[in-house]
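COMPLEX REQUEST
Ligand: coenzyme A
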Amino acid sequence: MNDVWTITRRLTPLRRLAVLDLINRTEVELGREALDENRRRGVIHDWPGEHWLKEDGGLRGYAHVTDTQVPCVEMCGGGLDQDLLAGVLAVHPVVDWWLRDSPGHAHAMRTIRLMTRPLPAPRVEVPEGARIRHFRPGLDDEAWLALNNAAFPDHPEQGEWSQEDLEARTREPWFDPSGFVLLEIDGELAASCWTKVHELHPDRPGEIYVISVDPRFQRRGLGRIILSEGLATLRSKGVSTAMLFVDASHESATSLYEHFGFEVAREDQILRFYA
Ligand SMILES: CC(C)(COP(=O)(O)OP(=O)(O)OC[C@H]1O[C@@H](n2cnc3c(N)ncnc32)[C@H](O)[C@@H]1OP(=O)(O)O)[C@@H](O)C(=O)NCCC(=O)NCCS
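STATUS: Structure written out below.
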């Protein structure tokens, strides 16, 4: 263990506020998110977890390590720190490290692209027999979870969501059911597009937060329709830039987004390290 970074499973109230302050200041400096949304939620809601702190007359650095089979490290600001790496590898034999806006590592395990496009986007006609409506919290949970988990069977962040995972997000202050659209065919949920407006970001971009088509209905044009509907809800809220994150190896989704005029704005990478 090094003496620069210290580890704790629970942030004291003062440290928690200092971490939030550091995250907020870093976001302003970088003009982008400083930390993955879920990790930030962990700090906001005071969830226990593996927190790493660099303190020297004040908080100088923060990192979070997930409790997953291969723990995943992310540092506030998204960089790499050799002292922290040494500390983390003294505790875990193998770790993944999420690097933001830092492409070009030949041995990256995963590359995640941020893609953007201006709004409005071209509309795609909704065919007869398909019905578009908003998600109703509580009433649509079960059907949406079934769709989500069928569409993302092995996805590290998106798959195997529980009722609790869904509710935790629909209880967030940013949640807005009018930006969460569903497509039904004969009363059956076939596709969904959940959007999120980043109200506190200087550019106020709108994110395609989760998009999925039931595997039984894929390759029939529903992805295009539901994406078009999601983008239209963002536009109706005055958003002028749409954004989304996609794994670089995900060809079908990338191809859908490129057809829609999305372009790569940034690349994040996940590197693996062994003790
Ligand atoms: C990605 C996804 C939303 C596409 O939905 P879909 O209804 O199958 O897509 P569409 O039929 O509307 O196809 C639109 C375009 O997407 C691309 N596409 C869709 N499926 C594809 C596939 N299997 N291989 C290659 N391209 C594909 C093509 O560019 C296609 O245009 P084309 O038909 O003119 O070639 C759907 O596959 C899905 O829900 N996947 C699982 C969840 C997921 O990965 N979401 C995205 C996370 S970033």
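REMARKS: The chain has a mean pLDDT of 94. The first strand starts at residue 5 and ends at 8.
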